[in-house]
Design a protein that fits this description.
The chain is mostly beta strands. 3% of the residues lie in helices and 65% in strands. The protein has 3 helices and 48 strands. The strands form 6 sheets. The chain has a 29-stranded antiparallel β-sheet that branches. It has a 6-stranded mixed β-sheet with strand order 8-9-14-15-12-13, with no helix packed on it. Strands 3-2-5-6 form a 4-stranded antiparallel β-sheet, with no helix packed on it. The protein is globular, with a radius of gyration of 28 Å.
Length: 772
């Protein structure tokens, strides 16, 4: 105790600049604008050994902890001359970086910081100066990030599901935006598996993409042309044009995309139902095709008054037309192994849709207070008409015509306020959204009842989040409160039984600390997933003669609790997740009526609580021109459901192994060879019955100083990525076999003075938009 007291007295009387001194400053460019995302590294003297480092924030500010007087600060950023500063005085003040013409040429920059590191609440992957810059589009890049898969406008974080994605703080509303972003524009990618309280409680993972600082003003554009071919389904072709005009604080940008998309499915479906007889259905659905035309447009205006205040408005339009589906089914029905009947059906449908969205934002700093405000509006309409022609036993013809129209509106606002407090940062705020969604369903033959229902929902949230560093230990804690009023109407009448109110509190905590040279992160969070509005419908939909579908307005939201332990050492990353899920949502089969047991009713219900564990390890070394990445993940659940003979325990683990390889070849070529292998195992009430393998290859080459690039890709090269799943749901067991075909893709991109918009709107009511 005496030694500790003497040591404390020494700290108090020693001159400024000794152990645990906080060094701070602010970086600006030649135009006196804040310089974000610059590397700020603390080096020891005289050997210039790395001590620690940080990255300047959006406002150019930085802080780090010095541990000795004999240290200096090294500041570097692509396109700027490196600056070194002494750490005394501790407040370095404003540092202006000037352009380095020699750096702006075609050079190879090697990143000083590790490629992967745990920092704060995220796993950070440095892209700048690495082979990842040549990945292609933003989506191609995410598919190379450890623990992430991306493709066909879908992004997943292993063990967490679909993430919310941000580019420089702006919420990505459509994953096609990732294709507007070239990988060589990206500085780093941050993957958060346990988001804090400022994110909606339904968000299970967050990906933050930080781009390099845009250089230059004036007009710039980039154009991307893509053509794809898949056997049986034909060609998909689209063109995307992005432009940006920047002058001083004014920024105008936009996107126009148009194309023709084709897809489909080859399925063999089997159903077994245990009633008074053993009913078996074998359905051949190998002739299903979908096609649609799509036009998307984005226009955003942004004005930055000065380094502390900016505002903007953004309009998005997304329209699908010529949306045609053509499905053919051949079904054979057996009763106690005896042939009961045969059926041939043709299903033709159209489902045009139009979506408009508007966002306004203000981002500012008043003294030490940071303010981020967003207001959103969303309007969408979708109409679906379906004509089904069925011929039973070769002579009895039945025609079924249905029409379904969904009309939805959403208004939302979100305010986030941040303030430095007690050597940390306090964030708090609130969010409100109001949703109005109508559903009209008509069946002119009267086989199923018509429906005219409406859902009105008001959601209010308040949250608080505090983060602080204690030397090398980073801590973050938060809490979020959500109140939801759900009102259900049928034919204009309020239905008291279906209408409900929800009140939920969601805490979260995150701690990040080193053990030697290993960075460790431990976090806990709870969250919610509210059912989509389509799941909450009460009417019955017609799929085909043997299958009807319905929703459930009594569904409860899913509650999740997660504990995550992660560790990172050089190019090795490990994570272990324990998850407790309550009221998970699953689809079950049950007889539609006792009079005709051949008809199945697909209904959505809440499952019993169950536990999951997810363990994963990622290895990402660099070996000369070869950049391999090997990821292995095991998921095991303890799920219980009812079968025809009683309760079933579905707990066989499932493994996924991802092996990605990038090769830098002569003449500037980049070759990718990737493989993803899935084993058999259980997922919720489904058993994946076969092992599957997806092998893909890609070849990339750029020309004319990166202005023109060509990328050729092939997915499912060996056509081994098939799927067989058996669904256990009460008295019925369904086995579905899906065959996937090889796909070829060619992408051509041309860019001129391409810059990224400064738009900073993050959006409001995001979870409600996803449900619509």
């Amino acid at each position: 105790m005496l030694k500790k007291t003497l040591l404390l007295l020494c700290y108090l009387i020693l001159p400024l600049g000794v152990s645990a001194q906080t060094v701070s400053g602010k970086l600006i460019d030649e135009n006196s604008q804040p310089l974000p995302f610059a590397n700020v590294v603390l080096l020891s003297l005289p050997d210039s050994a790395f001590v620690n480092g940080t990255v300047s924030g959006e406002d150019g500010a930085f802080t780090l902890e010095a541990t000795s007087e004999n240290q200096i600060v090294k500041i570097s950023s692509i396109g700027y001359k490196t600056v070194c500063k002494p750490i005394s005085p501790a407040n370095i003040g404003i540092v202006q970086l000037v352009s380095d013409a020699q750096v702006l040429g075609e050079v190879v920059v090697k990143a000083d910081l590790p490629k992967m590191q745990l920092k704060g609440d995220a796993m950070v992957t440095t892209v700048q100066g690495s082979i990842l810059e040549k990945a292609g589009t933003g989506e191609d890049l995410l598919n190379k990030i450890p623990g992430v898969s991306a493709g066909d406008d879908e992004v997943n974080v292993f063990g967490s599901g679909t993430p919310e994605i941000y580019i420089n703080g702006r919420k990505v509303r459509d994953n096609s935006e990732l294709d507007q972003l070239a990988s060589d524009q990206i500085k780093r990618v941050e993957v958060v598996k346990n988001p804090g309280a400022r994110y909606d409680a339904s968000v299970k993972a967050v990906i933050r993409i930080i781009t390099k600082k845009a250089v230059g003003e004036g007009f710039g554009f980039n154009n991307r042309f893509v053509t794809r071919h898949r056997r049986t389904y034909g060609w998909t072709t689209f063109d995307q044009y992005n432009f940006n005009y920047r002058k001083g604080g004014f920024d105008l940008s936009g996107t126009l995309l148009g194309g023709k998309f084709r897809n489909g499915n080859n399925q063999m479906l089997g159903m077994t139902t245990y009633l008074d007889k053993l009913w078996e259905q074998e359905m051949d659905a190998r002739y299903g095709k979908n096609s649609n035309s799509n036009v998307q447009g984005v226009l955003s205006l942004n004005y930055q008054f000065n380094e502390k205040h900016s505002m903007g408005i953004r309009y998005d339009m997304d329209k699908y037309f010529n949306s045609i589906s053509d499905w053919r089914f051949n079904t054979t029905v057996y009763a106690d192994k005896e042939l009961y009947e045969t059926n041939t059906s043709t299903m033709l449908g159209e489902d045009p849709s139009t979506k408009h969205s508007l966002n306004y934002y203000y981002n500012g700093q008043i003294g030490d207070w940071n303010i981020d405000f967003n207001a959103d509006g969303l309007w969408n309409v979708k109409e679906e008409s379906q004509h089904t022609k069925e011929i039973t036993n070769g002579n009895t013809e039945t025609n079924v015509n249905t029409f379904n129209k969904n009309n939805g509106t959403l208004y939302a606002a979100k305010l986030v306020v941040s303030y430095p407090l007690w050597q940390g940062n306090l964030s708090f705020g609130g969010e409100y959204s109001h949703t109005n969604r109508s559903n009209l369903y008509l069946n002119q033959e009267g086989i199923l009842a018509n429906d005219d229902s409406r859902i009105k929902e008001g959601s209010t949230a308040a949250f608080m989040d505090y983060s602080r560093s204690f030397g090398k230990v980073d801590m973050q804690a938060g809490v979020r409160y959500e109140n939801v009023n759900f009102d259900y109407y049928e034919q204009g009448k309020h239905m008291d039984e279906q209408s409900r109110e929800f009140n939920n509190i969601f805490p979260s905590v995150n701690i990040n600390f080193p053990i030697g040279k290993t960075q460790v992160q431990l976090s806990y969070s709870s969250g919610i997933t509210r059912p989509s509005y389509d799941m909450l419908r009460s009417n019955t939909y017609y799929s085909n003669k043997y299958t009807y579908q319905t929703g459930n307005p009594f569904l409860k939201p899913i509650i999740n609790q997660d504990v995550v332990l992660s560790a990172s050492y050089k190019w090795v990353n490990f994570s272990f997740t324990y998850n407790r899920t309550k009221d998970d949502i699953m689809q079950i089969n049950e007889p539609y009526s006792e009079t005709d047991p051949t008809i199945s009713l697909l209904r959505i219900v809440n499952a019993k609580p169950y536990n999951n564990i997810i363990s994963a390890i990622t290895l990402s070394p660099v070996i000369g021109c070869w950049n391999p990445q090997l990821m292995a993940q095991v998921h095991k659940q303890w799920f219980h459901t009812e079968g025809h003979e009683g309760e079933l325990t579905l707990s066989k683990p499932r493994m996924v192994i991802v092996w990605r390889n990038s090769f830098t070849l002569p003449a500037g070529f980049l070759l990718d060879v990737n493989g993803t292998y899935y084993t058999k195992g259980h997922t919720q009430n489904t058993y994946m019955g076969i092992n599957s393998l997806d092998v893909s290859m890609g070849l990339y080459k750029s020309f004319f100083n990166e202005r023109l690039s060509l990328q050729f890709q092939v997915t499912n090269l060996l056509e081994k990525n098939d799927m067989e799943c058996t669904v256990y749901s009460g008295i019925k067991t369904t086995t579905d076999y899906i065959t996937n075909f090889r796909r070829f893709s060619l992408t051509m991109r041309y860019k001129f003075n391409a810059t990224k918009s400064k738009y900073k709107g993050t959006g409001a009511g995001e979870s409600q938009k996803n449900r619509m």
